[in-house]
Amino acid sequence: MKKGPVIEPLRIADAAAGLRHVFVRDLEIPCAIGVHAHEKGHTQRVRINVDLGVSEGTSPHHDRLENVVCYEDIVTRIRGIVADGHINLVETLAERIAAVCLQDVSCRSARVRVEKLDVFADAVSVGVEIERFARNRARVRG
Predict the structure, then answer these.
(1) Which strands form 44-55's sheet, in the order they lie side by side?
(2) What is the pLDDT of residues 80-93, one digit of tens each?
(3) For residue 80, how far is the Cα from the chain centroid?
(4) How many CB atoms lie within 10 A of CB 123?
(5) Which pTM does this prediction carry?
(6) DSSP at 62
(7) Among 118, 23, 38, which residue's Cα sits nearest to residue 78?
């Protein structure tokens, strides 16, 4: 019997690999999102979580903001993506967020979860989670 590919869990913080974990938890913002007619023309609440595997580099950060990935910049960029206008799919929003995070050369991986919070009365949320790796940079392995 042929086995499928083995899916390895992402180890975001890994001292041996020189990686730190930078994250944004439960960012809740109004977003113009959805494909249905009743979702157009207004915003709905979305919750966004971002986990980044960031290279620590070889030199110390010297307690200076410009030497690390800044979570304030991540949040500002997410808000900018949402402010750009209506997005049909949570998948599209997640991909855009991952892409902007991976623009930072020290960012090796991005895991992004986007949840719509008010779709079903009997569900806390619905959404998608993606994981993307920076091209031409070492992949994060467990």
Answers:
(1) 19-31, 44-55, 107-116, 126-133
(2) 999 999 999 999 99
(3) 14
(4) 11
(5) 0.86
(6) T
(7) 23
